[in-house]
Design brief:
Elements (H helix, E strand, L loop, with lengths): L3 H28 L3 H22 L8 H19 L2 H11 L6 H7 L11 H12 L3 H4 L2 E2 L5 E2 L3 E7 L5 E7 L1 H25 L8 H10 L3 H16 L8 E2 L12 E5 L4 E2 L3 H8 L29 E3 L2 H20 L1 E3 L7 E5 L14 E3 L1 E5 L5 E3 L2 H16 L2 H10 L5 H9 L27 H15 L9 H18 L6 H14 L15 H33 L7 H17 L11
Parallel strand pairs: 5-12, 8-11
Antiparallel strand pairs: 1-3, 2-3, 3-4, 4-6, 7-10, 9-13, 10-12
Helix pairs in contact: 2-3, 2-8, 3-4, 3-5, 4-5, 8-9, 12-17, 12-18, 13-14, 13-18, 13-19, 18-19
Length: 596
């Protein structure tokens, strides 16, 4: 039994310690937006993950590895959802590229949605006082205190200016600005530990690039500038004028933490039911892509202005415009929107376009217009990289092995076939160095069944050979891949109405024929004869791809008539990619892995 004096000291020390920890926790919560608590949670979770893999990931315990993957996926998912903010965006980035990760990661991160409770109105009012020295009611003629949408970083309110314009007011949540420095510091530490100690894979090389762009996403002045620049570029492209609209920004009502833009009434691409009604088409009952999870499908319905409207061209017109828009961004403008998920796209009737209906019961035919929202995350592609990327796309479709190798080697990529498959979202195996069309053999016997440990080791070895020289790799490819993956998912979700690969490849080839610099010279003086000849060869090769696409569409229609599962062109590509992953890596990729 402890002496009385020792027991007293122990009680005092316990009380002081408890009080000190409580005070520190309260100060962190109230003054520091729980930044320290979030970092400790991050470091603890990553320590558990590291220890789990180090201790249990062994050949002797191969049968336990699926359970390890499940535990790690659960811990990471819980960490991202508990911390919120930028952690949600990092988790979504993992989900968009989870196809070659173990099945638990595919299942967990495909369902990570950026929804968050809205912060109370008094907090919003304080933001306005700091930014404008006015309350929302003073700044606007009307301001809805209840947010119409709330995500991890910001929430949106509907308002009306004193001039009578309806606007969407995006307000950054105050905690995010205080948390970002700590969050990015933890992100840097974790990536370093995973590369140097846990997985021995080159992942740290992208930290600076990703951190810079995530930080820029919180600057609403930069977002306003991105929107205005994109609107100007769309207006300069005859193929997109009228088909694409970027909401007007109101600079006088915008600051670094508040962004005010034109209010748009329309149907979100994420609302399948409403979208099907306004285009007069029945969408596939079961589809992959971004809309597979109907529980989280955002359903804003059809606005009153579109009750008696039918959009011409159907899903095909909508997706064709979308693929053309992002192709122009990649290959012509070199300025790419990196978050084109369905919630950031609204479809409305093009203002001023109408064909009068003879009866009040018949819908009025209108041209569709795609409205692109959320311009916070953009990447600028250097001219050299832009031309190389376009050359790579054309080479992939024409089996130009030398060009593929030259581009991938200049980017420090050692596995040209794996990289090509990632670019096209379809299986590609590159011919040997002698220029023949023979295919590379996958590592080992593709028919051999591997246990979980062997699968992971094979994947790790292949990925290390893929990232040979990370200093050479253009960091822009990280976000380009994200854009391509989301657009592919959108097309798949709508039943593959367009040949996405063909449209994208045509833009790539056209961008190589004409010099990139904007010039007042006549178009025929800006043609490159060598590239023009290559373009002719490319168009000839594309004919076969078109045949494959239309055969797929016919098969899709026949299966629909027979009441069978109605998969489209993108679904067939997905099955091919799963087969490629099995043969090249020994990895079983589930059908849900490509659901965005």
């Amino acid at each position: 039994m402890l002496p009385r004096i020792s027991r007293s000291r122990l009680v005092k020390r316990t009380a002081y310690t408890t009080f000190g920890l409580g005070a520190a926790y309260l100060a962190d919560t109230e003054l520091n937006a729980s930044a320290v608590t979030r970092n400790l949670r991050t470091l603890w979770t990553c320590a558990l993950i590291s220890a789990d893999y180090k201790l249990n990931f062994t050949p002797e315990h191969a049968d336990r590895i699926p359970a390890i993957h499940q535990r790690v996926a659960d811990r990471m998912y819980d960490l991202f959802t508990s911390n919120g903010g930028l952690y949600i965006k990092i988790g979504q980035a993992i989900g968009a590229n989870a196809a070659l990760m173990p099945a638990p990661f595919q299942q967990k991160f495909a369902r990570l949605f950026d929804d968050a409770p809205q912060i109370p109105y008094p907090t919003i009012a304080r933001v306005f006082q700091r930014e404008f020295n006015k309350s929302p009611q003073e700044l606007f003629a009307y301001f809805d205190e209840k947010a119409v949408a709330s995500a991890s970083v910001a929430q949106v309110h509907k308002a009306r200016t004193w001039d009578g314009d309806w606007v969407a007011v995006k307000v950054q949540k105050p905690d995010v600005g205080r948390q970002i420095g700590y969050d990015l510091m933890a992100f840097r530490a974790v990536m370093w530990a995973f590369e140097k100690w846990v997985f021995d894979l080159p992942v740290y090389f992208a930290v600076d690039f990703i951190s810079t762009h995530l930080r820029a996403e919180l600057d609403f002045i930069a977002e306003a500038s991105n929107a205005q620049r994109t609107a100007s570029l769309v207006a300069s492209e005859p193929r997109l004028v009228g088909k694409v609209h970027i909401p007007k920004v109101y600079p006088e009502y915008s600051t670094k933490r508040v962004l005010t833009a034109e209010w748009i009434d329309g149907v979100r691409l994420s609302d399948r039911e409403a979208l099907g009604r306004v285009v007069g088409e029945e969408l596939p009952e079961k589809s992959g892509g971004m809309f597979a999870d109907t529980v989280h499908e955002k359903k804003n319905g059809i606005p009153e202005s579109m009750y008696h409207v039918k959009l011409k061209g159907g899903m095909r017109a909508i997706m064709h415009t979308m693929v053309e828009l992002f192709s122009a961004q990649m290959f012509d403008w070199g300025f790419v929107h990196c978050d084109p998920h369905p919630g950031n796209i609204i479809i409305r009737a093009r203002p001023g376009s109408s064909l009068s209906s003879k009866s009040s019961s018949t819908p009025v035919l209108r041209d569709p217009q795609l409205v692109l929202l959320d311009h916070g995350l953009y990447v600028t592609i250097r001219p050299t990289v832009k031309r190389q990327y376009a050359s790579l796309w054309r080479a992939l479709l024409t089996s130009d092995w030398d060009t593929i190798r030259n581009v991938t080697e200049s980017w420090g990529v050692g596995e040209a076939g794996l990289f090509a498959s990632a670019v096209l979202m379809r299986p590609m195996k590159i011919g040997r160095a002698n220029g023949s069309n023979s295919l590379e053999k996958a590592n080992g016997d593709p028919n051999k069944e591997l246990n979980a440990y062997e699968q992971s080791v094979r994947m790790k070895e292949r990925l290390k050979r893929f990232l040979v020289d990370t200093d050479k790799m253009p960091k822009e490819l990280i976000f380009l891949g994200r854009n391509m993956r989301i657009v592919q998912g959108n097309n798949q979700s709508l039943g593959s109405p367009v040949n996405r690969i063909k449209i994208t490849a045509y833009w790539a080839s056209r961008s190589l024929v004409t010099m990139h610099e904007r010039s007042s010279r006549a178009w025929w003086t800006r043609l490159d004869a060598h590239e023009l000849w290559r373009d002719v060869l490319f168009r000839t090769a594309m004919f076969s791809l078109d045949i494959v696409f239309w055969v797929s569409k016919i098969r899709q229609r026949v299966r629909a008539l027979l009441g069978l599962t109605n998969g489209g062109f993108e679904d067939e590509l997905e099955r091919s990619v799963r087969g490629f992953a099995r043969s090249a890596f020994g990895v079983e990729v589930g059908p849900g892995a490509f659901e965005g």
